Amino acid sequence: MIRKAAVLGAGPAGLWLAKTLLETYPDLHVTVIDRNITSGGMTASFSYRGLVFDFGSHRLHPAASHELLKEIQHLMGSELLERPRNGRIFLDGRFVKFPLKPVDLMLNLPPSFSLGTAWDLISGPFRKKACDSATFRKVLISGLGPTISEKFYFPYAEKLWGLPPELLHGVQARKRISSGSIGKILLKALKAVTGSGQLSNTFYYPAGGFGRICEKTADRIESLGGRIIKGSIIAAIDIRDRGMMITSEADDGHSEEIEEDFIFSTIPVTELCKVLSPRPPERIIKSLGELSYRSMILCFLELDIPHYTEYDAHYFPGKDIIFSRMSEPKNYSNSSKPPDRTGLCFEIPCWSTDTIWGMSDEEIAEIVIKNLELTGLPTIPVISSFVKRISHAYPSYSLGYRIAFDKVDDYLKNIGNFVTLGRQGLFAHDNTHHTIEMGVAAADCFSPETGLDRNKWSSRRAEFEKHVVVD
Ligand SMILES: Cc1cc2nc3c(=O)[nH]c(=O)nc-3n(C[C@H](O)[C@H](O)[C@H](O)COP(=O)(O)OP(=O)(O)OC[C@H]3O[C@@H](n4cnc5c(N)ncnc54)[C@H](O)[C@@H]3O)c2cc1C
Question: Residues 252-287, buried b or exposed e (16+ Cβ, 10 A)?
Fold first, then answer.
């Protein structure tokens, strides 16, 4: 009988898992442990001199299942706003509405882009199909044709995931680019314009910042009797014949040992394996070396004006600009607070071994401002700036990642009373709603009497493979 379960990681996957466990099994002792002092993982928000910031642009996409949306709406009440998307993308030196709309594609882009795209649409059926193990380059050229691939997706992919398209696995294309052909992109854009179909031109966003979803989830966990240990890193997991011992360490050196009957882990699989005892065999350690997470620097600017632009986000796919996206959080929630100032967040994807990762906040802000000038956007009255770093922002799918991950996964599957899940745990480039669904599914496959139903969990895992990321 399982009486005590630990959840490692208080991001959306871990929190929704803990919440569902407690709602289903009120007698189960559930402890969530996270290294951060706030709940929510990458979806958290924070306040800075009256401005609310997220860790990069975050929105809840209507692509989430109807049941999940209803549950989040129920949790959030009137706090959850439905907002129109209002973004722009910097393509070929000009700004175009994003998500792409057919009219913009045809009228606002240079003729070489529009005509090339039109030709790729007509010639699509005659292009060679890419096989399942093909590279990102081959999958995209086969589905979308050369124009949009070369001008938009290839530079963007290299910027986000740090590898050229010929060294990226084709799975990255299938997971990220929901519209596999030009025809589907146009159809999707048309649906967005007319509001028909599942894809609409709106998104959901909590009035107090994206992080409110996880804050409310954490409150619910505590109200159900769950415990959340914050600011404590997992230092060791000792797997024993009966039960397992977790040691967590806080910044002040205080460490705590807790004995558990079952562990759900949502922390990066590479970090998890470092603290497992007994240590995984050498072949697993070698495979872990082939799994790389792309990091991200977030540069935040406080501006001496009520609004910078009317747009929520600007996307910069080109490699000539250092950041991939600039967002203005006040425009996500339509907030007028504070009345005199606004904030901007710039996302800079990088490797944690890159020089920029170790630069000072001031140096990074200076680079960001110089790059902003190159885009033609107005110069900005900056009052202050600061930087935050995300070490595990995106799983980067190298050509060898699948074989390496499968080896690690098979090893972890054989540990009794233990399961790994979430974006970091399954090395899955997923949206927030996907990872919440993973957490809920894990709780659904679990019972205190019999533990995790491995067969049911593996069917759910097969469903997760079909997830497509929405931008
Ligand atoms: C820049 C950016 C923008 C995004 N925008 C969107 C968006 O608009 N819409 C959307 O749906 N999704 C978006 N996402 C994706 C979304 O952030 C993730 O899907 C979601 O955060 C994954 O949740 P998770 O719980 O699986 O992982 P995480 O949120 O990463 O949570 C994992 C938790 O584990 C903790 N942890 C890690 N290591 C340890 C350790 N050793 N000890 C203790 N704790 C540890 C971390 O502190 C963290 O809290 C975006 C992601 C990024 C990077």
Answer: eeeeeebebbbbbbbbbbbbbbebbeeebeeebeeb
Q: Which atom of ligand 1 is nearest to the CA of 41?
A: 49
Q: Which domains does the chain have, with CATH numbers?
A: 4-79+207-290+398-464 (3.50.50.60), 109-192 (no CATH), 293-396 (3.90.660.20)
DSSP letters spanning 75-108: HHGGGEEEEE--EEEEETTEEEEES--HHHHHHT
Q: How far apart are CA 292 and CA 269, in angstroms?
A: 11
- For the residues 6-19, what does the mean pLDDT come to? 98
pLDDT digits (tens, 9 = 90+) for 197-217: 444 589 999 999 999 999 999
Task: Tell me the chain's radius of gyration from C-alpha atoms.
Answer: 22
Q: How far is the CA of 431 from the centre of ligand 1 (A)?
A: 9
Instruction: Name the pTM for this structure.
Output: 0.94
> 42: Cβ below 6 Å to ligand 1?
yes
Centre of ligand 1 to C-alpha 42, Å, is 4
Contact of 288 with 408, CB cutoff 8 Å: yes
Q: Is the CB of 61 under 6 A from ligand 1?
A: yes
Q: Give the model's pLDDT for residue 193.
A: 41
Instruction: Give the tokens for residue 381.
Output: 């009255």
